[in-house]
Design a protein that fits this description.
This protein is mostly helical and 201 residues long. It folds into 2 domains: 17-69, Orthogonal Bundle (Arc Repressor Mutant, subunit A), CATH 1.10.10.60; 75-199, Tetracycline Repressor, domain 2 (Orthogonal Bundle), CATH 1.10.357. It has 11 helices and no strands. It has helices at 2-9, 17-31, 38-45, 49-56, 59-75, 77-84, 88-102, 113-116, 126-153, 162-181, 186-197. Residues 1-12 have low confidence and may be disordered.
């Protein structure tokens, strides 16, 4: 009897965890953190609430896992562009071009989850809002570091304000995300990106 009970307790989950996580990503991406309820998640993921809690923990824990997977699968293009290109200008230019494509891909929620998921959160979601803010600021710091390296090498003028220029790029990317959610198409965002680069020193 004990062996039978142990076997039942140890039986594998009846759902694909990766598929369920992908559906959670899409729910948070489309609706934001606070507006996405547990019932929304269980419906989208095709699992029961007890299965969700057993596999992922609470809603906040699921969200953090969803954000991490989002960054790996969808949102890491900015960091890659800045790291892989030989100058900050080329990295930012590539990142803006890729943002125009990524934020408007058919079959996907519009914009960036990290930018939009905690726009309208209350005090109960302050920890989530802070975590996403830190991610966005981390991207700006990466851009600023690349700009400072170019100033040191002479690629950019010595009087370039690295902090302001990096902040400007962050504002452009965040604006492109919101514009895509408002219905802008890829060509619209590419025009914005091209115009934005004219401000580069």
């Amino acid at each position: 009897m004990a062996a039978k009970e142990a076997k039942q307790r140890g039986r594998p989950r009846s759902f694909d965890r990766e598929t369920a996580l992908e559906q959670a990503i899409r729910s948070f991406w489309e609706q934001g953190y606070e507006a996405t309820s547990i019932s929304d998640l269980t419906r989208a993921m095709g699992i029961s609430a007890p299965s969700l809690y057993a596999a992922f923990g609470d809603k906040q824990a699921l969200f953090y896992e969803a954000v991490a997977e989002y960054g790996r699968a969808y949102g890491g293009f900015l960091s890659r562009a800045v790291a892989e290109e030989p100058t900050a200008r080329r990295g930012v230019e590539r990142a803006l071009r890729e943002a125009a494509a990524e934020y408007t891909l058919p079959g996907r929620p519009r914009g960036c989850l990290v930018i939009s998921a905690a726009l309208n959160t209350g005090s109960g979601s302050a920890e989530v809002a802070d975590a996403l803010r830190e991610m966005r600021l981390g991207n700006v710091r990466e851009i600023e570091s690349a700009i400072r390296a170019d100033i040191a090498s002479g690629e950019l003028p010595a009087d370039t304000d690295a902090s302001a220029l990096a902040g400007y790029v962050g504002v452009v990317i965040q604006g492109m995300s919101q514009r895509s959610r408002d219905g802008a198409e890829r060509t619209d965002l590419e025009a914005i990106a091209e115009l934005a680069m004219r401000a580069w020193p």
